[in-house]
Amino acid sequence: MYKKLNNKRIAQLTGLTLAAALIAPIAQAEVSGEVSVTNDYRFRGVSQTAGDFALQAGIDYSTESGFFFGAWGSNVDDESYDSDIEIDIYAGYWGALGEDEEFEYDVTLTYYTYPGQDESSKYLEANVGFYYAGFHFAQWYTNDYANADVSLHYSELNYSFEFADNWSIDAHAGYSYGDGADLDWGEDYIDYSIGISTELGGVGLSLAWLDTNLSDDNIIKDGPWQNDGTVLATASYAF
Question: InterPro entries attached here (predicted)?
Fold first, then answer.
């Protein structure tokens, strides 16, 4: 599924493995989907489920011309939400450059929503991403983070290395900065992860260590917005 491959899945390793995400952003099939379960839904290093399990699913439609759109959803558990579910809607364009089209890029708009809630926390975010030889870089930006009329920037770099047949080492680093980061934490911060992934019987499996460099005063070890270091385990099935 495109958006999650390019957005939260890569940034937090909470769905399909990073290795699978970095292969081709757009699948040949016009319609694709994914279901996954993870022991914690982390978004840019911060738990959206108070450290508990999450069940996630999405569906994506892409055209041969490069345009795509879709939706993705997950349960959430956060004191700032009046809803128990997040549904993200996205649309964008993918293309390839180079003699062998080895350099790929995408431009995406994502709308984060929480059904049952008022307009609070719903917002639109844009990103541009680049893919080459196992690397993925993306730049995200919103001028209305959490519907709070503040800007937030997020830069991420991901890399996947296949060290054995169907086994990969996956690395991620992301940087949250701007007024949105100050609104949440009073500081800019980095989230990062390192893990291993494979596929067995059509099921994608990943195990990773995830942490941030937030100051000690901002570390939350339990409940909503938990952000301490953790082991993240995920199983997913794509169709």
Answer: CHP02001
